[in-house]
Amino acid sequence: MAERLSDTPHTIDTIGSLKRGEEGVIYDTPGMSLLASLGIRLGKRVRVLSKSLANGPLILMVDERSVAVDRSLAEEIFIRK
Amino acid sequence: MANHCGGSKSTRRQKRRLRRKHHRESRGRPSHKHILLMGLPNVGKSAIFSRFTGIDAMVSNYSGTTVEFYEGQMDIEGETYLLRDAPGVYNLKDSQDDAERVAVNMLEDGPEAIIFVLDALNFESSLHLLLQVLEYNIPTVVSLNRTDLMKSRGMKIDYRALSERLKVSVVPTVALKTQSLDVLKYSISKVFDETITYDPPETDTGRWRAVETITHDVVKSPGENGDDRFSFLVKPLPGIPIALGVLALMFAFVIGVGMGTRQLLLLLFDGMIFPLIEQGVSAVVSEGAFRNVLIGEYGFLIKGIEWPFALVLPYVMSFYIMISILEDTGYLPRIAVLLDGLFKKIGLNGSSVIPILLGYGCGIPAIMSTRALPSKKQRLSVAVMVSFAVPCVAQSGAFVVLLVERSLLAFFAIFIVSIIAMILSGLVIDRFHRQKPPFTLMELPPLLLPKPKILSRKILFRIKHYLKDGAVPMVIAIGAAALLYELGVLIVVGDAMSPLVTGWLNLPSEASTPLIMGIVRRELTVLPLIDMDLTTAQFFTGALVALFYVPCIAMIATLAKEFSIRTSVAVFLFTTLAAFFIGGLFARSYELIGILFG
């Protein structure tokens, strides 16, 4: 991880840190097959459509679809800004 | 093949019975030649299924409705096959939920062929699943679906190139257009003897890599990125006010259209049908107990028709029209996401809102739909909430009849009490059964205009279900009540319960009758009160007791089937006790306030 970090001049952060309307390219995800099937895979561009009330899920736009991702899970998905 | 050879009618029937028996014994493994329909969730699989089989399959946007799979007959070139609709899944490897396990089992049951629905809009994920399906070496036809939406977004997929790459037939379809389905059917008839020659990658990384290269080669124009015109619907502002507005409109429609239809029906029944029945019966049956059973107090030719068909049916219709429209637009998962954070506070996921909304129609489909929830605890929690505090549409209709004309305030108060009770019961269950809710991770299906044909089929299916499983037991219960009333049994029971009913609830002793009948049908706890001479406070007490009282027998049976007999007995006891307790509490405090301020 540390090596990969130094490879890139970009900022690495979690999806959870993005504000509404911001974009990022996925850099690292927890190994969950459903995440990949929903389009949340390395190199994919995602945009935060909204953040739900009361610490509810983030709504992400990936390719052609909207996916709701829990806040806690969003803290484990890393993106390049 | 042997199944199709002639033989006399009776032996054929015998064989069919045997086959059915065999079917049960082998846990759903069909002995008939069958074709499997596979694909991701929410890609229009069910629509293709119902077009091919013409069976009343429920078509809906909400992920999870196909966990119970559908099966139907399909004719291909004169031969009959069973078409099985596998649950929509994302993945087949190290399956994590029931739906995935069911899908894998179905693949292993040895279908003759597979129709794979490849969603043009979810191209990569669909392809990823297809590569896993091809590993099973079963002849496969790919239906490239939603090509209409694809075109409207300026996306182009070279389906011939895709077909060459995977060495399977690919048919572009719009799920509901007949002509493309005919082409699909033709391709299936040609596929049975083919073998899969494509060699799918073995590892998941390999599969995704293959998916990406194929996508790169086959998708000529990726289309504009995403349709987010409706993203405002999932933003807290204005999303939540809009959701509340939509639900309020739905409520207003259900009540308004229900009331209007009821008035029309009552004109018809009171003005024409009932006088006719009364005249006819009076002419044939002489005065006495038997005539009373037919047209007396609970005369089942009068109440047995009026209650299920004139009072309740209008609300059942208006509710199912509304909820079916909401389901088919794909809006419900958006409400679930908006409320997810709040539901987490009582240990539930936002998707719990869907069974609860269904519960306002009927508790039985609501309890069944909890199957789609991610944990046992959530299932139980939501099922108990629905059994305890969510009035079914039949009962809500009865509340309208009972309260709206007397006090609009009392009517709304009932629903507010219901919501508070739901939240409290959720909190209590969470306290006793603390468990972190699994995290939310779901796709929001695209918003669609409902297709009138599928929508009307679905609404008719649900109304038919009410007539069969709701109205018929109600008529029987009313008949039984009429008989018991004439035999004097209800009066004896009423006397026995009278300390509770008159002493604690401040209701006349005749009000114990609906409590007995209410065990059969939820609204029967309310409807008999209508003809009694009570004060508004008494009506409200009656409505409160009815709200929390035993859900109907059918719901108790469903709870036993879906959970355990223990659960259903516990719910039975708990709801009864709570109903009397809360009803009495209101009656007592109302009395107290009257003494203090009156």
Query: How many E-type strands of chain B?
Result: 9
N-to-C series of helices and strands of chain A: HEEHEEEHE
Taking all residues together, what is the mean pLDDT of chain B?
Answer: 84
Largest sheet of chain B: 6 strands, mixed
How many H/I helical runs of chain B?
23
Strand content of chain A: 35-45%
Shape of chain B: elongated
Query: Can you identify the CATH superfamily of chain A?
Result: Ferrous iron transport protein A (FeoA)
CATH top level of chain A?
A: Mainly Beta
Count every helix of chain A, treating DSSP H or I runs of 4 or more residues as helices.
3
Helix content of chain A: 10-25%
Structural class of chain A: alpha+beta
CATH-level-2 architecture of chain A: Roll
| Shape by Cα distribution of chain A | globular
Give a written overview of the molecule.
Chain A is of the alpha+beta class and 81 residues long. Helix content of chain A is 19%, strand content 36%. Chain A has helices spanning 2-7, 33-37, 71-74, and strands spanning 12-14, 23-28, 45-51, 58-62, 65-69, 78-80. Chain A has a six-stranded antiparallel beta sheet with strand order 1-6-2-3-4-5. In chain A, strand 3 (45-51) and strand 4 form a beta hairpin. Chain A starts with a helix and ends with a strand. Chain B has 598 residues and is of the alpha/beta class. Chain B folds into two domains: 32-222, Rossmann fold; 234-281 and 302-597, no CATH class. Helices cover 61% and strands 8% of the residues of chain B. Chain B has helices at residues 9-25, 45-53, 98-108, 123-134, 147-152, 159-166, 178-191, 204-218, 236-284, 289-295, 303-329, 332-344, 353-359, 363-369, 376-389, 393-404, 408-432, 452-487, 489-504, 512-517, 536-548, 553-562, 565-597; strands at residues 34-39, 70-76, 79-85, 113-119, 140-145, 155-157, 169-172, 219-222, 441-444. In chain B, the strands form two sheets. A six-stranded mixed beta sheet of chain B has the order 2-3-1-4-5-7, with helices on both faces. In chain B, a hairpin with a 2-residue loop joins strand 2 (70-76) and strand 3. In chain B, helix 10 packs antiparallel against helix 18. Chain B is elongated. Chains A and B meet through helix 2, strand 3, strand 4 and strand 5 of A and helix 4, helix 9, helix 12 and strand 9 of B.
